[in-house]
User: Fold this.
Amino acid sequence: MEEAMTSSQGGESDMDYSDNECYDEYYNIHDDSDIEQIDPRKIDPEYFEFRCLLEEEVDRLLNETVEALSSILHISPSLAKVLLYSHQWNVNEITKKFRENPTSVLVSSRIEPATTPSSLLLTRYIICPVCVTPQPLDKFYGLSCTHMFCKDCWTMHFEVQINQGISTGIACMARDCVVLAPEDFVLKHLQRPNMREKYQQFCFQDYVKSHPELRFCPGPNCSIVVHSCEMKAKRATCTQCKTAFCFRCGCDYHAPTDCQVIKKWLTKCADDSETANYISAHTKDCPKCHICIEKNGGCNHMQCYNCKHDFCWMCLGDWKSHGSEYYECSRYRENPNIAHESVHAQAREALKKYLHYYERWENHSKSLKLEEQTLTNLKARINQKVMSGLGTWIDWQYLFTAANLLAKCRYTLQYTYPYAYYMDAGPRKELFEYQQAQLEAEIENLSWKIERAETTDRGELENQMDIAEKRRTTLLKDFLDV
Amino acid sequence: MANIAAQRIKREFKEVIKSEEVAKCAIKVELLNDSYTELKGEIAGPPDTPYEGGNFILEIKVPETYPFNPPKVRFITKIWHPNISSVTGAICLDILKDQWAAAMTLRTVLLSLQALLSAAEPDDPQDAVVGDSIKKILKCPHANSDCDDKIKRLVDMGVEDHQARVALSSYNWDLERATEQLFS
Assistant:
């Protein structure tokens, strides 16, 4: 059992350091030794290499890129930054384009104007078109577009823009001129230290957001930036605030569903959930004795307290038919005659289909929360046992490992529903729903066993953990496409 | 008020007064106070448009950070135009928002507004109702005289011109339903 656990967590073990895993590694040192030789990329479909960087480290990383480009193209670091920002920090692409046609790169990156600027009036005093005061020529500055404005006006312009949150996008003050002010030009005109600081802070944020290999940790008040060379929709976990998120979109991790689909799904849920909430009430009647039942635990295997009937919470069918190989309940059988039915029936069918998936999505999300509760109860129960001399604290640690694994599996299961909802009918969907059903069945078994941990044999529980995790990785291996 | 802003407005005020458009009575500005923070603008409806012959009064508020931020402009005169709110007079024009440049002036703003009157953009409306009706009218070339007829009939019944327009446009130019609403 531990083999499967450690191999799948190989990529995370360094960030997800909970106490139980320390013990795990201590006890299973021999199991680990032969695993390390296998490339984790091949065994674990969720394996993701990334680093959590502090602001200074990100600065260093960005500056290295800037210096590299400025030395290749012989341009100032400030201009290199504008180029990099507009080309998503792709040095090779910029170099290639620049070698082919330097002018077009500079124009499209808004460093140079598209039309050649008119020649300047070289009198000693000129009138600044912004503040309309005549001033000596040496007080005037301009960008490559040669639109000249006085020093004070530039300062005012930059301060106003920065106060509105604009930094890398500050343009020239002339009408219809799109040339951007590079960093050195802006800083030259900013004297107040707090403005300079604000400007640099905003620039830094813009740079990180435009860099495909970097992403701000979405955790509240967290300043960590995650760096990875793989620009994929994989799970990154912040070492500081422990927030886990999808590296590509920054939202909650959502394998096996991809970023666009989960976004579509979440918007849909936000729009439709009122109806869905209304239709799927929080209570159900026992299929046998019709007593009203509220679900208060994570498991879908229900036992009516009144008539002791075992049934499935999802389909209200007899639980006995769920235990074996077919777990029909998670499968939505599409009506084959839909094409012949009226528009009204089609709309109803669409709502029915959506509700089917939404109900299961919601249900697993609720189960996840309820199982957190179970975990706290578990802690209390273990405490009691240790106090009354039934084994030591260490003896009961496996229950926590089991609860963590359960949460991980259920999380993946929850995110398989949006995936299935947007899948086209066909053999691939059938295979997916088959695997999903298998995973669901094993998760419910695991949940049932954890909730009744004292009466379940430890070996049996660990066996169940192994099966559930294997089902999860198999599904991800076949369908996680990042 | 910041020094630059007042200085600029003084200067621009002179620029407008001296401009050739004023000579043609196309644009006009008036100061409303001594601190140059509020002005009254006026533009003439451009020729060959439904606005021809009309004079449109504008409220111009000059922010402290002018000319680094655009002036706040809205129509005081009620106007039926897809990019201008028929209720508040708010204007949807890029140079009054993110496309503003410090080198632009009151004169350029007034001229741009005049240009907006002659080139409406019903696909990016400020007033959705007006945007929709304009699109319908554009589709049907005889609609204009048809609308005029309907307004005239309501006016003949003793309804004010503006009220007639409001009622008709909110009922999709259905004369019967508009009449019903007006006399109910």
